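In this section we walk through a basic example: taking a raw amino acid sequence and producing a predicted 3D structure, encoded as discrete structure tokens. The instruction is simple. Fold the sequence below.
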Amino acid sequence: MPVVVPMAGRRGVSPWAPLGEPLFRSLWIASVISYTGTWMQNVGAGWLMTQMTMNPLMVGLVQAAAALPVFLVILPAGALADMVDRRRFLLLTQGWMVLASGTLGIMTLTSCVGPWVLLLFTFLLGLGAVMNDPAWQAITPELVPAEQHASAVALNSAGFNVARAVGPALGGLIVAAVGCGTTFLLNAFSFLGVILFLYRWKRPIGTRPKTQRVWSAIGDGFSYVRESGLAKSVLLRTGTFSVAAVAMLALLPIIARPYGARGYGVLLGCFGLGALLGAVALPRLRERLSVDGVVGAAILIFAAMTFAAGRAEIFGLLCAVMLVAGGAWIGILACLNVAAQTMCPAYVRARALSFYLLVLQGGMAIGATLWGALAKRIGVPDALGVAAVVLALGVFALRGHRITASELELTPVVVRD
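The resulting token sequence is shown next.
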């Protein structure tokens, strides 16, 4: 699922200006609906697995199944996003996600889903999402004038965080009222607005796909990233964070089990609300701290909340923990996303982003599996305690890999977690 942060637009440009562009406004509304459906799907999938089994490994594998396609297709997806007609490519990936989510919904409502079938369709939905991501990132500059690009990215970010705050709570209510299958079907319908926009969108004349072999394009991107010190620092920081940080979210369905589906949705909603509040506070923090300072402080805060999540026995306290964790999470990913978006020139940007997404989402897939297996052996609270220690140690172990960002603009991309 995507992570985003609203930032102010460039000086002299209203942060609301892109909404005056009919194309961007239509896509923005459709994407907010789609993001909300995605978060409802996440709640339904996590909760459905806990209804079938309380095995922490199987619950952790729900997150892993969604992220596993990153290992398989993100690099070709990044190359294709620089090479093909993005409109047609996005229509294909969006249609794939409608089919995967809709089929899972029908099978769930007809009681044809077991744990492994749920993991299979979660994987298939993740496959479409991963293929979609790099091309999706790249179309925003085609919808707004150049001077509104930063504001457009900020509005995309704001829309995603609104969906992240609303979608889980809404998903929890729907699961409690009519079951998980309905959330899957609603997610399938949520893609239709984006598909309608893409179908009616006429791309500007002169945008031509590049003629290059996929593996050659991937090789060019790898060569650039390998030679860039900033890129290597960003990828190292991202990898160490993502593997450990996913423990809280992967094990949350088990933590929330005593509070029911509504409680689970509320906890995810608190996390999303914290992310939204953190996004609002981030520009002021950046006036006082370096990018490296924000990342380091936010990781230590997130580590503390990871530890607390395994030991909070009062629902209100757990909600507060998730709220603070959401704010820290967005502060970390905002800075990492900015660095990833700007660490390479435009001609190789989609491929550079694909390497970043591989490390971010791949690390989460590995982490979700590892923490699920560890929780099965030593229990959820102790597993989260180990994850908190790993997060804190990573801050100090990578002090030599600073993200120097004086030249970077805080205009993050939309990234799924």
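Looking at the output, two observations stand out. DSSP finds 15 helices and two strands in the chain. The chain has one domain: 2-416. In the next section we compare this with other chains.
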